[in-house]
From TrEMBL:
Record region (Disordered): 444-467
Sorted UniProt keywords: Membrane, Transmembrane, Transmembrane helix
Designated name of the protein: DUF2029 domain-containing protein
Organism: Rhodococcoides yunnanense
InterPro entries to which the protein is assigned, alphabetical: PIG-M, UCP010361
Bilayer-crossing regions: 6-28, 115-134, 154-173, 185-214, 234-258, 309-330, 336-355, 367-387, 413-434
Length: 467
């Protein structure tokens, strides 16, 4: 099997160089909020004054306080969560590897500005590695990652770059010239590491298992691993590698600080679909429960009912979207002979972003690699970037207007464009991704091997001929 290298070296150099420029601009944008003077806690006194109106807010700077990061407490081990949902003792609301990265960024820091800088220095290499991998796999299309507005806006908004690198790394590993099982096991380990950073890559293990069980490209990539239509053993190896990695990473925290480790999950389960979540639930369903004419008691009861519905409906619909994407991938595999695991992973991500009760602006970084790798119309990609800009800028201008007591109708309009524009395009991408070819065929594929056609596939994934 040939190597996964597709782009010439100069293309990759340009992609990585432009990503470096984007990361520098991204840091400078956020650093506008992290300037002297600082109060006794190390918080920039300018942060609260300009973070929304100047659109330089970042969770990194914000979380310098409130999670004992400023006290340099190692996360989770001494942590807990109070009855009213407040995290204590170093616990943060993210999976353990993100918590460790946060702690590392705080070790040399004594102000939120220093924390932002050291965190950016830790995170930036992950953004560059992602650019390098995308450049190798997709050539000039990878400039979407390097030169698109999201990298500047969100690279240092939160701790997203490591998890994106883990997800892209899993796809990149699957292009390398080594036996299929070995590639798939390595990819599953990377996806499990991603799960320990921000959860979502863990879902991609399922389509990866389907790809391996059906023996890869055209059903013959793992012909040397035994006879039969299915590579069940290989699928179990992939599942075992992913589960084992998650257990190995989380077990020390669960053993030595169970309450703090569990508190991070409890915090997320308690989070409500409120104004800060930017979700279709708050801006859509909530209007059927809440009205301006309600008494305070009726309002509180309606708000509780709304949150109860979201707590049940959101995860159920996310799981349904996952199942639907996997099934659509199976239908496509029956025609093409190859299970489209990357395309299905992209569709699953769209379902999650659309239906989860929280849709933070920086989630766009999760989606960008799929827009780079999968052949969807560039016009739709551009439209998504525009509505994302409407959200990424408009939501903070909206918060600033609300805080000042000014009329916020104009700012709310841009938020609504962002919320519903993203929702519509995520629904479109959910459908298009499953049917999309890779922009550059993976090793062993031809440009037509992933195209749905009326001709019979090389292998059949059904028990009845002619289906």
């Amino acid at each position: 099997m040939r190597s996964g290298v597709r782009a010439n070296p100069m293309t990759v150099v340009v992609v990585v160089t432009m990503a470096a420029l984007g990361l520098i601009l991204g840091y400078l944008n956020k650093a506008r909020c992290a300037v002297a003077p600082f109060d006794a806690s190390g918080r920039s006194t300018m942060f609260d004054a300009i973070k929304d109106s100047s659109v330089c807010y970042s969770d990194i700077q914000f979380l310098w306080l409130g999670r004992d990061i400023d006290n340099h407490i190692f996360p989770y081990i001494h942590g807990a969560i109070t009855s009213d949902g407040i995290l204590t003792g170093g616990t943060v609301e993210y999976p353990v590897l993100s918590g460790v990265l946060m702690w590392l960024g705080a070790v040399p820091a004594h102000t939120d500005a220093q924390f932002l800088l050291t965190s950016a220095l830790i995170l930036a290499p992950f953004g560059l590695v992602t650019a390098w991998m995308l450049g190798r796999m997709a050539g000039w299309s990878a400039l979407l990652w390097s030169m698109g507005p999201p990298l500047v806006m969100y690279a240092f908004h939160n701790w997203e770059l490591p998890v994106v690198a883990a997800a892209v790394g899993a796809i990149f590993v699957m292009t390398l010239p080594m036996p299929l099982r070995r590639r798939a096991v390595l990819a599953s380990v990377l996806l499990a590491i991603g799960f320990c950073l921000k959860l979502y890559p863990g879902a991609f293990v399922l389509p990866l298992i389907a790809y391996l069980v059906t023996r890869g490209v055209d059903g013959h990539e793992s012909a040397d691993t035994g006879r039969g239509r299915w590579d069940i053993r290989g699928g179990l190896m992939v599942a075992g590698a992913a589960i084992g990695t998650v257990v190995a990473v989380n077990l020390p925290f669960a053993v030595f600080g169970y309450e703090g480790w569990r508190a991070s999950f409890t915090f997320q389960s308690l989070r409500q679909a409120d104004l800060t979540t930017n979700s279709i639930w708050y801006w859509g369903l909530r209007h059927f429960y809440i009205s301006d004419q309600m008494t305070p008691d009726a309002y509180a009861e309606a708000e509780k009912s709304f949150q109860d519905v979201v707590d049940v409906a959101s995860p159920l619909l996310v799981f349904f979207a996952f199942a639907l994407a996997l099934w659509l991938g199976w239908r496509r595999a029956k025609v093409t002979g190859t299970y489209p695991w990357v395309a299905v992973s992209g569709s699953m991500l769209c379902g999650f972003m659309l239906l989860h009760k929280v849709h933070s602006p920086q989630y766009t970084l999760w989606l960008l690699p799929f827009l780079v790798l999968l052949r969807v119309p560039w016009g739709l990609v551009g439209a998504y970037l525009l509505v994302d800009l409407s959200m990424g800028i408009g939501v903070f201008k909206y918060f600033a207007a609300l805080a000042s007591g000014a009329d916020a109708n104009d700012e709310e309009f841009f938020v609504l464009v962002g919320v519903w524009g993203r929702a519509l395009l995520l629904l479109v991408f959910f459908v298009l991704f499953v049917r999309a070819r890779m922009r550059v065929p993976f090793p062993g594929e031809t440009d037509q091997s992933s195209v749905i056609s009326p001709r019979p596939a090389t292998i059949s994934l059904t028990t009845s001929p002619g289906q």
